[in-house]
Amino acid sequence: MSKPDYYEVLGVGRDADDETIKKAYRKKALENHPDRNAGDKAAESRFKVASEAFEVLSNAEKRATYDRYGHEGLEGSGFHGFTGGGVEDIFARFGDIFGDFFGGMGGFGRGGAGAGGRRGRHRPRAGEDIGFRMALTFEEAVRGAKKEIRVPRHVPCDACGGKGSKNGTATCPTCRGEGQVVRGGGPFIISTTCGTCGGAGEVLRDRCATCRGTGKRAEEDKLTVTIPAGVSNDVQLRLEGKGDLGENGGPPGDLYLQFDVKRHKVFERHDDDLHCEVKVNVAEAALGAEVDVPTLDGPEAVRLPAGTQSGQTVRLVGKGVPAVRGRPAGDVVAHVTVEIPAKLTEKQRELFEALGTTFKGRDVKDTKEPKETKEKKKGFFEKLMGE
Known about the structure:
With about 375 residues, this protein is α+β, with helices and mostly antiparallel strands. It has four domains: about 1-125, Orthogonal Bundle (Helix Hairpins); about 125-170 and about 205-260, Urease metallochaperone UreE, N-terminal domain (HSP40/DNAj peptide-binding domain, Sandwich); about 265-340, Urease metallochaperone UreE, N-terminal domain (HSP40/DNAj peptide-binding domain, Sandwich), CATH 2.60.260; about 345-385, no CATH class. The chain has twelve helices and 15 strands. It has helices at about 5-10, 20-30, 40-55, 60-75, 85-95, 95-100, 105-110, 115-120, 140-145, 280-285, 345-355, 370-385, and strands spanning about 130-135, 145-155, 170, 180-185, 190-195, 200-205, 215-225, 235-240, 255-260, 270, 275-280, 290-295, 300-305, 315, 330-340. The strands form six sheets. A four-stranded mixed β-sheet has the order 10-11-15-14. Helix 2 runs antiparallel to helix 3. The relative contact order is 0.10.
């Protein structure tokens, strides 16, 4: 099933600014929120799709990827949206936004920012984002590729199941589960975050010896990444959920891919066009010749017209960067360079000297041109000068 256009889902134009997108999502979220439409699966589905659209269009990198490559580009970067997950995933991702939209109600009673008490302090937190630089050959960047990479990141500790302790938690003895410590008396009462539990209200019964109570361990994660065709050094791809481990059940962070594209020995890329040089000798340039123009699929024979000058270009339409999401393919632009020989054989010198005497403006005393022709030329120039 084809995915809907995210701009159409939110009812905004493709040039909409961030504030317009946020307001449009606010309206859609209010209309279709599951707690306002209990049991209405269609409304819940619309809520998920609107949240998916907002997730993409409110993020500069994802929006740029979507605008250029469409849903295929997002899927290639690891983004699969919320349509396959629960509404709770959306609350975890957009907790702050729901607090702004719904007046701090925490998503209509689902335990968000406005739930109050210790529950708010156990709020899920997204993991840290990770940046990764990937080397690509010129062909991989232009055509797209599948690459296997190893990314250092945290994963749940196997020994304690990511809880930091095999025996769970106990009420903090310092704050007695409140997460706050009150000091002072009378009108001067100061409430501060408990230093023992960090405001959680709970402490580990015994720390896991493997992860030392952190609930996570470091490892090198092996990932297979789909690189869409046409990427370049200034493109950044975001892989949804492939960053560091979240806390308190929060979603993982994202992985940002940046590229180091190797230079090509023949082509130089300008947007979607591939530029190259084709060298010809003076005879080929003067008389015309069939030459091979390089393309990514191999050389292609092209006929140069007689009188081709150095610096002229030959364009092979559609032979550049492949077409992506309705955008036409680029071209191969071959720049002709006429090579002047630095050294000549004796025979070549004789031929060039003989050739030189035939050009206009040169000494013609040794030519075989008939006297009658010379007289006609003289008469023409005399008429031209008004004589």
